[in-house]
Amino acid sequence: MRTKKKENIDEAVTAVTSTPTSTVSAASVVNPAVVEPVEVQERIPLDQQRELFKWILEEKRKLKPNGPEEKTRIDEEKAILKQFIRAKSIPSL
What we know:
3 helices
């Protein structure tokens, strides 16, 4: 009786080891790459961009820095925003 059990176990082991390789290849064939079209959004008008920069500047002024590095970073960001607000042409968003 023991010889029959070993044969059944050997057959089961070979069946299990051969099954995953066939399912992996079948799964890769079933899932093709799906490409979705990109939507193009309208440009933001210059006055709305200036208003947005002014609002961001006001919010930056309300911030309380925790350390000297954060204060210098916030000051640099405010300087950049001021340049954008004063400039005649604004980079597009």
